[in-house]
Amino acid sequence: MQQISVSPVFVGRGSEITELTDALRRAGAGSPQAVLIGGEAGVGKTRLLEEFLQRAADGGAVISLGSCLEVGAEGLPYAPLAAALRRLHRSLGAELEAAAAGSEGHLSRLLSELGEADGEPNDEYSRAQLFEHTARLFERLGAERTLVLAVEDLHWSDRSTRELLAFLVRTLHRSRVLLVATYRSDDLHRRHPLRPFLAELERLRTVQRLELERFDRREVAAQLAGILGTATPDRQLVDRIHRRSEGNPFFVEELATAFDDGCGAGLTDSLRDILLVRVEGLDEDAQRVVRIAAEGGSHVEHALLAAVLADDEEALIEALRSAVGANILRPDTEGEGYRFRHALVREAVSDDLLPGERHRINRKFALAVEARPQLVPADALPARLANYWYHAHDPARALPTALDAARAARRRNAFAEQLGMLERALELWDMVTEEVLAHTLRPYDWAETYPPGSCDHSAADEECDRIQLEDVLAEAVVAARRCGDRERGLSLAKRGLRLVDETVHPVRAAWFRINRARILGSLRRSGDEEEIAHALRLVEHLPPSAVQAEVLGLGAGSAMLKKPGPEHLELAERAIRIAEQVGAHAVEVHARMTLGGLRYDVHGDAEGGLAELAGAVERARRLGVPDVLLRGINNLASMQRGLGRSEDAVRLAREGLEFADGNGLLRNIGAILTGNLVEALIDLGRVREAAEVLDAFELGSLSGSHAEFLDRMRGELALLEGDLATAATMLAQARAANRVGQVQHSVPISRLAVRLAALGGRPLEARAELLAALAEDGRLGYESDVYPLLAEAVGVEADSRGLPEAEEGRAAVLAAVAAAAAELRPRAPLHHGWARLLEAELARAEGADTPGKWAAVIEALRPTGLPYPLALALLRAGEAEVQAGRREAAAELLREAAELATVRGDRMLAAQIASLAERAGLNLAPGDRTAAKEAPAPLAGDSFNLTPRERDVLRLLARGWTNRQIAEELYISPKTASVHVSNILGKLAVGGRGEAAALAHRLRLFPDDLAPSGR
Prior knowledge:
The chain is mainly alpha-helical. It has 50 helices and 8 strands. The strands form 2 sheets. Strands 2-3-4-1-5 form a 5-stranded parallel beta sheet, with helices on both faces. It has a 3-stranded antiparallel beta sheet with strand order 6-8-7. The longest helix has 19 residues, at 585-603. The two termini are 62 Å apart.
C-alpha cells in the first residue's frame, strides 16, 4: 500500500485499532460489519485506515480502497465503489470475474472491464438490479475469505454512492465483508446530506461509529520522535508544537517540517494555503469579519466585534452565520462570542493581513475596550488591552499596559503570563520617551526580597518611586523561576547583573547572584557555588537585610544537597537570626526548613529534624507564602519517605501537587513532587497508581527541572515490568540529566544501574557501578538510598561467587562495602532492616549465611510494612532453608515472598522466586502444605530441560573450563563438548559462556560446587 503520512511511525489510536480489529474478526466469522470513522481534517483518519488495511492484508483479508472526489455531488456517481472494484479486479483478476458471472451486464455500469452494459432502461428497477448484483458480488467474494472495502472522504460522496452503501450495509447478512468509511466531521454543516445518512446507519446493530480525537501531548511527542528521527524530542519543542497544533496530527507534521527547515516560528506555505482555503470561499463581507475577528484574540465577544465593526447588526449577523456555517468560527459555549475552529486558522488569517491593516484593526479594538471596558471580562481586561496596543504598534501605550497586565497576572498566580508581559515591557523600554517612563508607568510591584529603585531610600528622593529597568528585570527573574522557565530566568538575571554596579548597589547585585545560583542548581549546572560565594562576600559586612539573610540561608541549603557540615548549621541559624531582626518572615521560614534538613543530615537527629521542618511548614501555611510552603512540603515528604514512612510521604506529596496546581506553581515544583509521590507509591507496592501519576504529569505537558528524577522513576517502573530495554534507556537519560551529580539523585541512579546490570547477567558491570558510587562523597543523610545500593550490589557479588572472572578484586569490593556501611548512621527501623540485610548478604557472599541470619533480617523488616525489601529477604531466607534441607519452611517463606512480589508488581523478583521454587520442587500454591514434603528434590538444571550430560558440562563450564578441558574430564571429543555447550546456551537463553556461568552461579544450580576450581 502507498504510505502518504509524513511520520514513519504509527502513533496512538490503540482503542480505534482494537475496535476495527474486533469488527474484522466478527466479519471473518460471517457477520458483515460497517465502521464509520469521523474526525476533523488532519486528525489522522487516512493514517489510521492505512494502518488497519495493512494489518488486515497481513492477516489474509482481501482489501480494496476507493475515495470520493470533491466534485462527487455534482457528478461521477459511484466513484469510490468503482475505484474499489477496479482495484479488486487488478488484484483478483479471474476470481472477481468468476464471482461476477451472470451479473456482468449490470456490474459493468460500475466496472467497465466486465464488458458492455445491458440494454435495460435506466430507471428505478435497473438501479435496484445494480444494487442487488453488487451485493451478490461482494457476498461471493467474501464467501471463502474476509473482504474489506474502504471508502475515504464520505463527506464528498454523491447520493448514489451513499444509497448503494446503505443498501450493502442493510442487505449483506451471511458474507465475510467489512465496510469502512471515513468522513470529515468538521465539514458536516447542518444541512449536509451526509448527516441523515449517518443517523440512519447508526441505528443498525452491525454499524459502529468512531470519532477520532486530537493527540494528547504524549502522542505528539511520539509523532515528533518519528518525524525528527530521535528517541526523545526536545521537551520545549514538544510543548510548543503541541500547543500550536492543538494535537492535530497533520498540523504537527507541518510544524515539525517547518522546524526541521529552520523556520520554527511560522507556518509553512503549504499549511497556510490549506488553512485559508475555507476563508477564501466566503463572500467579501464574511471574509472581512473573519479578518477582524482574528485580531480580537482566541475568543472575541460579539458585542466587542460589533463595536469595532460599527456595521449594521443584521449584516454582521449574516456574515457571522456564513463563517460559522463554513466551520471557520464557532460560537463559544456561553453563547456570548466566537472562537476559531482551530488556533492555526486564526494564525493564518492574521498572518495574511497587511501590516498597516493589522495595526489599524488592533487600534480599533484597543480604543473600543478603553471606551467600554465592560465589553470584555474584568479578569481579562489588562492582558487584552496590553495585547491590542502592542499589536497596534503604539509603544507609548503598550509599555504601561504591559506592566499593568504583568502585575494583574502575578496576582492571579499566572506566572508564565506575567513573564510574557514583563519581557514585552523590556522589549518596549527603549522605544518610549523619557516622559512616558517618568509619568505613565506603575511603580515597582514585587520580586521577593529584591530592593527596588536605583536611589537611596533613606533620602527624600522622588525618583525612588519610579520603576527602573533593573526592577522590571528582577520581577521577570522571579516570574521565570516560578513558571519553570529557568533558562530564561538565567539570562534575565545575567542581564540584571550587567546593569547593576555591585560597588554601588551590593545588595541588589547579591540578589541577582543568588537567583542565578538557584536557577543553576535547578538546572543541574555548575557555577551555583561560585555565585553563592560571591554573594556572601558582597553582603558579609553590610547591615542586616532580607537579602543578607537569604544569601546565608541559600548557602546553607546548597550545602545540604552536597556535603553538609556543622558550619552550615551555623550559617542557617545566622540566617534565621537576621531574618527575625529585619522582619523577613518568609526568609526565616525558608532558613528553618534548611535547618531541619541539616539537623537530620549532620547530627543524625531524625525526630528533631522532622519537628523543625514540620514547624516551618505550618508557619509557611500561616504566612501564605506558596513557594516556601511547597519547598517545605516537598522536603518533608522526602524525609518521611527516607525514614520508611511512605504513607505520610504520599499524603504530603499529593497535598503539595494540589496546592501547586492551585497557585500556578506546578511547572516550577511539580516534577520533584511527582517524583517523590511516585517513589513513595512504589515503596508501598502501589505500582499501577504510581504509573498513572507519572502518566498524568506527562500528559499535562509540564516540562521543567528534575528530569533525572522522573526518568529514573520511569526506569524503575520498567524494571518492575521486566522491560530491561526501556529501563536502560531511562537510566541513560537520567544520567545525562544529572550533570552535577547530587547524591540524592546519583545514588538511586547507581542503584538502578546495578540492578539492571545484574538482571542482564553482567556482574562485573554491576561491580563497576558500585565502585563508582563508593567514590562519591556526602553519603551521610541518604541512608535510605545508600543501604539498598550496598545490599543489592553485594547480592550480585554473592550470586557470582565462584565465577572465575569475578574472583579477582572481589575481596576488596566486599571490604569497601563494609567500610562504607560502617560510616552510615541508621536512624529509622527501615535503615536498621536494610543494615541487617546488608550484613546477611555480606555473609552470603562468603558462603556463610544461615537461615538464622535471614530470620533476623525478616524480623527487622516486618515492622516497616513495606513489601520490599521484605520480599527480597524472604527469598534469601527461602534459599537458605532449601540448602539446609528444610523444604516446608522454604515453601512458606517463598510463598509469602511471591505474594509480596505480586502485590508490588515486581515481575523480575517473582520470576526469581518461581525459579527457585521450581528447582527445589516446591509448590507455592496458596493453602498447599504437603507438596513441599512429598516432592523429591530436582536435579540441577531440570527447570531448563538439561540432559544429565549437559548438566555435567555446565558444571565444568561454570568453573571456567575450556572445551578441551571439559572433553578430557568427561572422556568426549572437544567437538562433542562444543555441541553440548551450544545446546546449553540455547536452553539457558544466554549469549555466551560467561553469561551461562553467571546464571548457573546466580541460580545456585550447583550449590556444592561454588568454590573456584580449574586445571
